[in-house]
Design goal:
By secondary structure, the protein is an all-alpha fold. The protein contains one helix and no strands.
Length: 111
């Protein structure tokens, strides 16, 4: 009978240990489900923030493209103005050189 009692005692001991493990795993399952819920919440929050940031970047990039386009047009207009100014400078210096040669020709009595 002692063997039967030992076996019964061992079975009851094992059942109590299994019950304790099941209660511990239930606690872990609850914690894991809470963590999953928090991760889902943070994921939605992160997606919302990321979408807002994406829209803001697109807006700023569009503004930057417009400013670069305006700057390009302004630079082109400035370049045309400088080219026109250089042409006028060349004509002016050619006129001065002609007048100087005329004065020299009179001074040396070439004319």
């Amino acid at each position: 009978m002692a063997a039967v009692e030992k076996e019964l005692h061992r079975e009851m001991f094992m059942e109590s240990r299994i019950a304790r493990i099941e209660s511990d795993t239930e606690h872990l399952r609850k914690d894991v489900s809470r963590v999953e819920a928090r991760v889902d919440h943070l994921d939605r929050k992160f997606d919302t923030k990321l979408d807002a940031l994406d829209k803001k970047i697109d807006t700023k990039f569009g503004e930057l493209e417009k400013k670069v386009g305006d700057l390009s047009h302004a630079f082109h207009a400035f370049q045309l103005q400088i080219t026109r100014q250089r042409w006028l400078d060349k004509v002016w210096w050619l006129g001065i050189a002609g007048v100087l040669l005329g004065v020299m020709a009179r001074g040396f009595k070439w004319l």
